């Protein structure tokens, strides 16, 4: 497969393809045309073909896509064919919610450890995983082959914890703190800024109301 | 201000501007040039000018932007100058995490009610808000001027709950269920698909490792 720079917009759409293909596979569907996939996913067939062309195509023209093949190939592109070990830093409600989320495990993301500065939380368990004090962070990462750290802590703490992670083997930060982190390119950062998402929602409520007033 | 169709990509960037401007404002900064804002936010000055031009510009050339004015204007565009009342459907860990999130309140999003099908959870409280049974959903929405419903329930339930919400005055769904919802255009949907976000992270870990191998 030829390698080229793929835009983050295309990457952002891959998990959605993966999700729909997984559902088709579970229903026993073996083949699907780009037209049918287009109707199901409510994106144009041309968008689907363009997206897939970034990865060499996948398809047999006029014959449709082999669902299982496509599902597996996209899974490989997404790195889901290997196991990822993650820790959650911050044992509050959000951290516990993510620790309890079994779907991540199905995709190969294994919840291995949890950390908190709060001594009252240390020793408690979330789905069999013990909350540890922050002093043990580096050693635990080293001994347990951790490659992803999930940050569910306030933004002030997130900045300094991210700096500590730079010196470890962690290769990615899934950041729920409401701040942009400055880390070297060797650490991938994916932000989930919940307030930003809620503001976008609020914008769209407003926009729709304004359009209705004028119509 | 002239009205035109603004792309969702631009909209998606507004909350980030709002966040940085809020921090500048809190630090007492009165004016900022697009160049300085560019360096702070790590986006090009031309991107900033292009984004702001969608809303008529905001800026005085050569003089920089008035931070507080810009902050307020973007806040208005995002609909943050009015109060939004929201309910959370699903009183599990994630629902409770969102209910406890005080930052939403600061932005004018007020947590008013919580619902769950689980009788064991009904009557419990999250930050002074009682969990109610699903039978009371429509009446509560009507009587409490609810315009946003947050769905933190499994995907099978999310589809049918979204259908119930269509008949109410709810104008937006903030959807954490791992499924795309089919609702009429009068209801705005903002998805937070956590698994999708994690897969994107995994893709970027992979991509970086492949690049390093080749370099």
Structure, described:
The structure is a homodimer of 215-residue chains. The first copy, chain A, has 9 helices and 9 strands. The model of chain A has no long low-confidence stretch (mean pLDDT 91). In chain A, the strands form 2 sheets. A 7-stranded mixed sheet of chain A has the order 5-6-4-3-7-8-9, sandwiched between helices. In chain A, helix 1 runs antiparallel to helix 4 and helix 2 packs across helix 3. Chain A has 215 residues and is α/β, with parallel strands linked by helices. In chain A, 46% of the residues lie in helices and 17% in strands.
> Which strand order does the major sheet of chain A show?
5-6-4-3-7-8-9
Largest interface: A-B, 58 and 58 residues
Count the beta strands of chain A: 9
User: How far is the first residue's CA from the last residue's CA of chain A?
Assistant: 50 Å
Instruction: Based on Cα principal axes, name the global outline of chain A.
Output: globular
* Largest β sheet strand count, sense and barrel closure of chain A: 7 strands, mixed
Mean pLDDT of chain A: 91
Topology of chain A as a string of helices (H) and strands (E): HEHHEHEHHEEEHEHEEH
Q: What proportion of the residues of chain A is helical, as a percent range?
A: 40-55%
Number of helices of chain A: 9
Tell me the quaternary state. Answer: homodimer
Task: Please state roughly what percent of the residues of chain A sit in beta strands, choosing from under 5%, 5-15%, 15-25%, 25-35%, 35-45% or over 45%.
Answer: 15-25%
**Using only CA atoms, what is the Rg of chain A?**
21 Å
Which residues of chain A sit in consecutive blocks of at least 5 with pLDDT less than 50? Answer: none
């Amino acid at each position: 497969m030829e390698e080229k720079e793929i835009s983050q917009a295309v990457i952002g759409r891959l998990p959605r393809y993966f999700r729909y293909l997984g559902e088709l596979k579970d229903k026993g569907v073996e083949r699907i045309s780009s037209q049918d996939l287009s109707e199901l996913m409510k994106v144009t067939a041309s968008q689907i073909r363009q997206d897939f062309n970034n990865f060499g195509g996948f398809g047999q023209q006029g014959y449709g896509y082999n669902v299982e093949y496509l599902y597996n190939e996209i899974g490989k592109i997404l790195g889901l064919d290997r196991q990822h070990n993650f820790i959650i830093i911050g044992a509050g409600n959000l951290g516990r919610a993510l620790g309890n989320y079994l779907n991540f495990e199905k995709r190969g993301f294994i919840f291995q450890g949890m950390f908190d500065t709060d001594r009252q939380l240390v020793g408690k368990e979330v789905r069999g995983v013990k909350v540890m004090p922050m002093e043990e962070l580096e050693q635990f990462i080293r001994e347990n082959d951790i490659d992803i750290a999930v940050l569910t802590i306030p933004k002030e703490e997130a900045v300094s914890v991210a700096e500590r992670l730079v010196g470890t083997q962690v290769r990615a930060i899934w950041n729920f703190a409401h701040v942009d982190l400055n880390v070297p390119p060797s650490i991938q950062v994916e932000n989930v800024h919940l307030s930003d998402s809620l503001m976008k929602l609020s914008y769209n409520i407003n926009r729709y109301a304004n359009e209705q007033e004028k119509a």
